[in-house]
Write a structure and sequence with these properties.
With about 200 residues, the chain is of the alpha+beta class. The chain contains five helices and eight strands, in the order H-H-H-H-H-E-E-E-E-E-E-E-E. It folds into two domains: about 60 residues, no CATH class; about 90 residues, Immunoglobulin-like (Sandwich).
Length: about 200
């Protein structure tokens, strides 16, 4: 009885091994690379060609052949790198015109003060500078109206600030008494270690 079970078990194992061997996918090796270029970038296309070369022609898909196939792709719908403008677009954001770009401010921290810098927007008649203690905005916002400015770089010194306290600054351009898009929020911390006067 044990011998019969042993023979039956061996027969089943041999049958499974044979069936597995027969079911293995055989790749046809040709002397030509049959890869059709596609992908979001040229690099992705070349990687796909090389990494899956057994599917496309084995050793016939050399680095040079894959590079040439991806380099000469002309189908925009398959080769995403051909239409760079589409890759750069965010479908969730509307296109912003150059005139609508927000104002960018930068600053320098000093002892009991800060210096705020920005470049004049050609469509602004004046500016409003607002600042407050970042951790306590409900304790008051200081507001400056800036009606005189330079055509290029503008600098506004803010004095009598507390050292080692973070302040938030923002500038709002005004045109025809209407507010334009506000600048970035700039956070600075005045420090006694930063003496700009010498």
């Amino acid at each position: 009885m044990n011998t019969l079970l042993l023979v039956l078990l061996i027969f089943i194992l041999i049958s499974i091994a044979f069936a597995t061997y027969k079911l293995q996918e055989k790749f046809v090796v040709t002397d030509k690379c049959e890869f059709i270029p596609w992908g979001p970038s040229k690099r992705a296309c070349m990687d796909r060609c090389r990494n899956d070369r057994k599917l496309w022609g084995g050793d016939a898909c050399s680095k040079a052949v894959c590079y040439n196939l991806c380099e000469t792709c002309t189908e925009v719908d398959k080769c995403g790198w051909l239409d760079r403008s589409e890759m750069l677009k965010d479908p969730n954001e509307p296109v912003v015109e150059q005139a609508e770009l927000p104002l960018v401010i930068r600053g320098i921290e000093a002892d009991r003060g800060c210096i705020i810098q920005w470049f004049h927007k050609s469509d602004a008649d004046s500016y409003i500078l607002k600042y407050y203690m970042s951790s306590r905005p409900t304790e008051g916002v200081k507001i400056f109206s800036i009606k005189e400015f330079n055509e290029g770089l503008n600098i506004k010194a803010i004095e009598n600030l507390d050292n080692d306290v973070e302040y938030s600054f923002v500038i709002i351009p005004i045109k025809d008494r209407k507010r334009l898009s506000m600048s970035n929020i700039l956070r600075l911390v005045p420090s006694p270690k930063l003496n700009l006067s010498g």
